[in-house]
Amino acid sequence: SLLQETAAMYLSMLPRVLHPFQASKLVLQMQVRHAGHNKWSNIRHIKGARDQLVAKKISLYTAKINIAIKDNGGNTNPEVNRGLSKIVDEALAQQVPKTTVERILKNYKINAEENGEFLIEVRGPGRVGVLVECLAKKKAHLDVKLNPILKRCGSTQEQGVVNMFEKKGIIVTDMKKGQTFDDAESDAIEVGAEEVNLADEETSMLEFITGEHDLFAVSGELTKAGYICKEASISYIPNTEGSMNVFEAKNFEKLVDMLMEEECVTAVHSNTS
Questions:
Q1: Are 211 and 194 in contact, with CB atoms under 8 Å apart?
Q2: The whole model's pTM is what?
Q3: What does the pLDDT average to over 28-49?
Q4: Comparing C-alpha atoms, which of 260, 254, 235 is closest to residue 32?
Q5: Residue 271 has pLDDT above 70, yes or no
Q6: Rounded to an integer, what distance in angstroms lies between the CA atom of residue 233 and that of residue 258?
């Protein structure tokens, strides 16, 4: 039927629409794992300028750094505050400018009320798993903002969704000139990555997967080995995949767009196929 043909055409377009670094009007910010295509896709998927994502990342690490300082009695020196040093390294690995990190450290206020990190577990359209990373002073504040969006998009909070994911580091690079994928696999072992995948055959783009706490070290070793790191992030990678029909997919896209428009939301991850 015409409806079935239209649905099939729409679904066939999704992997291209959601491709990580394809030139398009989409600015991408979501974890998606495609069946048979780009095993560990680090997808960013919201409309708007990339500046919005940069601002969200800076807000996230401002909160992380301030919490690490507060937890160590107000010590702003990463050389003696090990928790702070770890967060600073993570921020730099995710390409937060060094000058921005230094400004955050300088502007720390001892008695300031800090935002905390929250992970909201959601059952989305088609019962796909969705994780929403947020910053807020209290979770109740998030419920007021996010629950109307979830309801409007056929979604609801549900405990246990996080168990469908693993928290990993993802580093995106181009393959080195004259290099084969076998060479990249050898380099992955040398630098301490858990694995490497060919993210895009056309552009020879690679994704190196690291442990949650190894992103900074592996990123540094890749740079030493001659790779140019285009993107680095701590992400939730799905263990299982969910699927949606064409109507659920449209609702899901609306859900992600609306969530990422909220200032309190820093990232959205999904197991949609």
A1: yes
A2: 0.72
A3: 37
A4: 235
A5: yes
A6: 22
Q: What is the DSSP string of 102-161?
A: HHHHHT--TTPPPPEEEEEEEE-GGG-EEEEEEEES-HHHHHHHHHHHHHHTT-EE-TTG
For residue 245, the cross-strand partners are: none
Q: What distance separates the 2 farthest-apart alpha carbons in the chain?
A: 67
Q: Are strands 265-270 and 30-31 parallel, antiparallel or unpaired?
A: parallel
Q: What is the CA radius of gyration of the chain?
A: 19
CA–CA gap between residue 79 and residue 106 (Å, rounded): 15
Q: Is the dihedral of CA 181, 185, 188, 190 positive or negative?
A: negative
Q: CA of 210: how far to CAs of 5, 37, 50, 193, 240, in Å? A: 41, 20, 25, 5, 19
For 117, phi then psi, to 5°, come to -90, 135
Distance between CA atoms of 94 and 117, rounded to whole angstroms? 17
Pairing verdict, β 165-174 and 156-157: unpaired
Task: Give the DSSP letter of residue 240.
Answer: S
